[in-house]
Each structure stands twice: as C-alpha cells, then as structure tokens.
Amino acid sequence: MITNAKYISAPLTVIALLFSASACSDPSTMSTDTAKVEVADSKQANNIQTSDSSIPDEQVSTNKPAFTTKIIASFDEPWAMTALPKSSAESLKLLVTQKTGELFVVDARTGVKARVSGVPKVAYGGQGGLGDVILAPDFATTNIVYLSYIEAGKGSEDNTFGAKVIKAKLSGLDTTVPTLQAIVPIWQQRPKVKGQGHYSHRLLFSPDGRYLYISSGERQAKDPAQDMSVNLGKIVRLNPDGTVPIDNPFVHNSNVDTEADIKANANDITKQLWTLGHRNVLGMAFDKSGRLWAHEMGPRGGDELNLIEKGSNYGWPIVSNGRNYSGIDIPDHDTRPDFIAPKITWTPVISPSSMSLYYSGSYNDFPAWQGNALISGLSSKALIVVDLGASNAAAPYERYRYDMGQRIRSVLAVDGEVWLLEDGSSGKLLRLLPK
Questions:
Q1: Of 49, 105, 297, 392, which sits with the fewest C-beta atoms within 10 Å of its C-beta?
Q2: DSSP characters for 213-253?
Q3: φ/ψ of residue 368, rounded to 5
Q4: Which phi and psi angles does 156 have, rounded to 5°?
C-alpha cells in the first residue's frame, strides 16, 4: 500500500531504474495523439515515497484472490462501459463507448456488437472524443441514457474544446440497429479552451437517482480549479434535467433564493458546483453507506483517492503530494489544513482511469473483494483493489494490485462479476474468471 508520506531523496541512477517500467506508456495500444497527452500524466516524480508503517498487521492481505481473463470482444480506443438491466434468463449486455465516436451494445457472453446510430459528432484527439455513458435511474421505463463527449468550438471559439453532456432515448435495443433519439443537451464545460487534455467528464447518479454528478477537469490549465466563475477543475451536481438543485453548496451566494429562481438561473456556473480544487477526476462511485469517492491523476506523483464532501476544496493546484513536471515542488496537503487531504496518494502514480465498487449479486466471483473499490490503471497497467474502510474513522488502504500487462481503461463490477476494458486501438473487453 502507498499512502500519504514524505519524500526521501535517492540517486538519479537508482531512480531511473525504479521508475522506468511504470512510467512508460504502451505506444502499441495508443494512437499517436493520445500518447502525446497521456504519457505526460504517467510521468513519475524524481523521488521515492515511503510506505506508511502505521498500517495494522490485520489489514495486510495474505490470501490474494486469483483469476484468469477471457477475451469477449475488441474495440478501437474504448473509454467507458455500463451494464443494461436484464432478467435472469437473458445474457448480460453492455454499452461501450469508443473515443473515436462510436457507441456499441455488446453481448457480454458472445461478444456480438451492434453499433448505435445517432451519436453526435465528437471532437476526437488527445484525450478527447466520446466519453462516459450511464443509464438514467428510470431507464427501465424510459430507455434514457446520458453520454459525455468533446465538442469543438465554432466561430469566435474556433480551435477550442470542451466536454458536453446529453441525454437521449436508446431505441431498438431488441434489433441489430439501435439508435439514439430525442437528444437533449444537459451541461457543458465553460469556457471552452485550447488543448485536448484533462476533460474528465465522468458521469454518476446518486444512489437515490435524484442527482447527476459530473467531473470536470481543469483542462491542464491549473488555475481554473480555484476559479469559481468557471466549471473547470470541479465536480458538478445537477438535477437529471440539467437544472441546479436548490441545496447545492454555492446556490445562495446571491439573492436568488426560491427553487424556481434557481432553476431559471441554472446557467450561473457557481450554482452548479459541488466541490472544487480538482485536477483530472476519472473515477467516481458511491459506496453502500452513501459516501461519494473520486480518484484523480496527480502531476509527477500524487495520484489521489478522495472522499467527496459537499462544498469542499481539494487544493489543486495550490497543494499536491506530487511535483510539477518541471521538477519544482508543490506544497503537500499537510501544509494547508484548510484544503481536504486525500485518503490515499500514490507515488509512483497508478494513473487511475475508472472506478467501480464490488458487491455480490446473482454471482459472487470474488467474495474477498466485497464492498471494495476496483480501480483501473493506465501507466500502472494494473487493477487495484482498495478497501474504503467501514466508516470515516477507518482509513482506506490498497489491498491488492494485479499486473494486467496492458493499460486498463475501464473496470465494471456488476451483479458479482467483473469486466475490464483495455486501452488503445485494439483494446479488449475482458471478463475476470476466478480460479
């Protein structure tokens, strides 16, 4: 396990040997544009971080569950997946996005894919393209899905980009030609800016289905994360129709007080915000206790797992347990107690790309993972299993790490089974099979 700890220096020759394997991306599984941007987020600090010796002996796992992988299908730069509801007699079907702009319905047993038509045009390049996909809480009756993607600016915004979220009806699921219909815009990053990195655009509904959470990266510009007039470097909380909930933490910073007035002023960016001070949040999940967890990529070191608390500031770019790419240090979180410190940091980085919580269902393939967070890693080429702790008093810690041999873009635990998506131009959909 790697937790918050002080840096110790080491000779550069030793450091190069220690970090070279984990720092390198795998160019064979990436497009050239993607590699240029994402390799930067895989660089390590020129320091070694010590492990926290305070971890209780009883937390050290000795019986690490083993598994094999089964290849189900292949994709061209897959990014996200979610499971469609099913009856016990049906085969599980997944929705899978490709950064290049395609959405597929995939039979998770046979690997048969049906491409969904009607997906909006995406601005593909760097870290941009088609992003996340989730189901509306009432999907069973409405067939509504939510998608995030990158939109290019026009006119005065030419050569700028930003994330956009839409909802749409997914029709024809029982056919070979499903389609998106009745597309409605929900939200967008403001302002659009130059560059094609740190969009984040991860989507998540609250357990009660009342609120939509959107992670919005700081677009590699740092300062927007602390700027309350923009929604970059933030986690946003909206109603499912894109309006602003009346109990958002920054709603009452003006004289707009009634719920009707708040909904009428939904474009007031400050009112959208749930938390701030984020860099690049690519994973969010609620646990069974209703706690919201999110991980984000640090710079040179300092990847974070955070417990997300209403109205809180997580400190980027003022504090970080990593360093600038120039090598210049950034003050650690413990120098600024006014910012919320991460529950776990990783140096060397794991480059966390998604998160899913494991709970048993019709299947219980990995009972030892019950209630744990599964985190996919890019530069680490790993699946990381984290115990989140039973309460706020119990510290989360890394239990297991599995070397997958490929950059892992997405992990999904559903009904007691686990699925992975490899990153890159020939990324495989894998099912984990317990030994």
A1: 392
A2: EEEE--TT-SGGGG-TTS-TTEEEEE-TTSPPPTT-TTGGG
A3: -65, -15
A4: -65, -15
pLDDT tens for each residue of 260-302: 555 555 568 999 999 999 999 999 999 999 999 999 999 999 9
State the Cα–Cα distance between residues 362 and 365, nearest whole angstrom.
Answer: 10
pTM: 0.86
DSSP alpha helices (H): ranges in 265-319?
Answer: 269-272
CB neighbours of residue 423 within 10 Å = 29
* Percentages of the chain per state (helix, strand, coil), in multiples of 5: 15, 35, 50
- Catalytic residue positions, numbered: 198
Q: Rounded to an integer, what distance in angstroms lies between the CA atom of residue 86 and that of residue 105? A: 13
**Concatenated DSSP letters of 337-393:** TTSPPPSEEESS---EEEEEE---SS--S-GGGTT-EEEEESTT-EEEEEE--SSTT
Structure tokens at 304: 């974070």
Contact predicate 420/411, CB 8 Å: yes
**142 vs 145, 167, 168, 181, CA distance in Å?**
9, 11, 10, 12
Coil vs helix vs strand at 399: strand
- Please give the DSSP secondary-structure letter assigned to residue 135: E
Using DSSP's 3-state secondary structure scheme, residue 69 falls into strand
